[in-house]
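lol forgot to send this yesterday, sorry. struct tokens for the thing we talked abt
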């Protein structure tokens, strides 16, 4: 491949000596679970997200599920989710015994359509769990308003949106709780699995922290039946090195996205639509075409690696054959799944790689 989809090694290489030093500090400190590196990162990330609290957890799925559980969502409850999100959003709802109720996205933004949410609310609905898909913030104000009117919680899956802004304010403290993943390929990626929740409610934060630590706030005193899900110091120290660079890395992604937008504006593919209130961080740059398999094969032949996020929507997975949507279908999610194609993008991607991608797509379009 001449243009890889994402060069993770390059991103880590650029901070290798700082990360090595941070790992050395962790080893020297003797704190291999919890301790000062984790606390320091949690404070840094809460400040970055303009949120009152940050709780490090083991991964993004746990961030979602511990947030839902700590907020009291459980069996018999319904949680509204996007029909085209990564399956983890749905799985977290199942993990607390509740039911994910899918609502279709606005195909222009790929994010939950607030106008469709209201009609999905039933007597059992307890929350909306909105995903900021591909790093583009969802339209939060109408959702916040709707949740307030119906007495629902608004939770956010921000696993792809580190640093994204909604109407000028960074994602992380708008709703009742925000779940993050530090999976290595995310915009802020650890050296393995990691995650966090940010929120402004001290009680919710304490409960999430206890639930992720065997349901214990004090050692060997268990107030409820929790799990083991913690952000390891080695990961906390590594992402603390990267956090000060996140905005610059996101700016680089914005430069790549701007090249694609300009270079493909007259191409016969559908480009992402960015509402004027959205400042996305381009975790993924996703275009659409009815001829997706053909374009992907052509780009492969030109040495351009692309991926599909996501080829099968959750309700079409074998895991969800018992969800009512498996029978009724979700036409927008299904259409998007058959048309989306993610182009290479990343914090270290050379700009001339983007030009190669553009040239290849233009050739495919015969322009
Ligand atoms: C990556 C991701 C998750 C899950 O994060 P993990 O750390 O892999 O568990 C959840 N939701 C979305 C939208 C994601 O992209």
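and heres what i got for the seq, position by position
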């Amino acid at each position: 491949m001449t243009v890889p989809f994402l060069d993770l090694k390059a991103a880590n290489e650029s901070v290798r000596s700082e990360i090595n030093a941070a790992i050395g500090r962790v080893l020297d400190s003797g704190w291999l679970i919890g301790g000062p590196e984790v606390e320091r990162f949690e404070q840094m990330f809460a400040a970055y997200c303009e949120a009152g609290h940050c709780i490090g957890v083991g991964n993004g799925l746990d961030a979602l599920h511990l947030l839902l559980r700590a907020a009291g969502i459980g069996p018999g409850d319904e949680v509204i989710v996007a029909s085209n999100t990564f399956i983890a959003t749905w799985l977290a709802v199942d993990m607390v015994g509740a039911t994910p109720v899918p609502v279709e996205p606005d195909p222009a933004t790929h994010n939950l359509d607030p106008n469709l949410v209201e009609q999905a609310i039933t007597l059992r609905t307890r929350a909306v769990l909105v995903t900021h898909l591909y790093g583009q913030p969802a339209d939060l104000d109408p959702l916040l308003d709707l949740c307030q009117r119906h007495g629902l919680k608004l939770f956010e899956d921000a696993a792809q949106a580190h640093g994204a802004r909604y109407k000028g304010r960074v994602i992380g403290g708008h709703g009742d709780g925000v779940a993050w993943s530090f999976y290595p390929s995310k915009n802020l990626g650890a050296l393995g699995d990691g995650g966090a929740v940010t929120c402004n409610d001290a009680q919710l934060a304490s409960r999430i922290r206890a639930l992720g630590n065997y349901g214990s706030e004090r050692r060997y005193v268990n107030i409820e039946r929790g799990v083991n899900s913690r952000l390891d110091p080695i990961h906390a120290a590594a992402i603390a090195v990267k956090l000060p660079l996140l905005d610059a890395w996101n700016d680089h992604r914005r430069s790549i996205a701007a090249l694609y937008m300009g270079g493909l504006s007259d191409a016969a593919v559908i480009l992402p639509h960015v509402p004027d209130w959205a400042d996305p961080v381009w975790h993924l740059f996703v275009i659409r075409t009815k001829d997706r398999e053909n374009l992907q094969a052509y780009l492969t032949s030109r040495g351009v690696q692309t991926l599909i996020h996501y080829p099968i929507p959750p309700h079409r997975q074998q895991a969800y054959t018992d969800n009512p949507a498996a029978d009724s279908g979700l036409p927008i999610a299904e259409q998007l799944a058959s048309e989306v194609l993610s182009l290479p993008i990343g914090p270290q991607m050379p700009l001339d790689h983007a030009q190669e991608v553009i040239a290849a797509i233009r050739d495919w379009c015969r322009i």
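The longest strand covers residues 125-131. anyway ping me if u want another try
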